[in-house]
Amino acid sequence: MTTRVLVVDDQVLIRAGVAALLRAAPQMEVVGEASDGDEAVQLAAEQRPDVILMDIRMPGTSGIVATEQIMAAGPDPRPRILVLTTFDLDEYVYAALRAGACGFLLKDTGPQRLLAAIAAVAEGDTLFSPSVTRRLIEAYAPQPDPATPPPETLDVLTSRELDVLRLVAGGLSNPEIAETLVISESTVKTHLNRTMAKLDIGSRAQAVVLAYETGLVTPGSR
């Protein structure tokens, strides 16, 4: 299947270079190019891309705000947003993760890595490694006050869904969660999908952020 990609970057040479690379690649189709966040939101609604390559830092509407608006707009299936950044341990990357991005790439990433990353996220994978995700969240996530009653956000989840969410936030993969809880990997996926639907979140990374921000897990826990 062809992967439909929207390229967003305020620097015309970078945008044009990435678009040219994708147009030359098999099973890739560039459905639009945007120079700022507002244009990205508009083109995402018009073209319904499978994947959006989103620059984070742009004048005017940033890539983070654009990601939030695109993910909130719906309808499903929402596009998979892959953000482009200069530094991996960056509060902007954390904000993009919180907004619903499913991965990030450094801007000096080579062409083959870029193509592989687009293909991976189009298939539903994420490109936040557990170690990087934990470092980002522990560095930038606001921690709840222990004296404050926990929010009711997670009350909609069953005890087993909470178990799965806690282990996801701890950096475990689906096979590791299945082994820990003595359930099948498909059951783990079912619990995680139901959790994301109940919480109205669009990515595994958002689930991890929510687990930290609600106090379900704390920095340094596993």
From TrEMBL:
Keywords of this entry: DNA-binding, Phosphoprotein, Transcription, Transcription regulation
Gene3D superfamilies associated with the record: 3.40.50.2300
Keyword Translocase: no
Pfam families in the cross-refs: GerE (PF00196), Response_reg (PF00072)
Response regulatory domain location: 4-122
Domain HTH luxR-type: 150-215
Residue(s) carrying 4-aspartylphosphate: 55
Protein's recorded name: Response regulator transcription factor
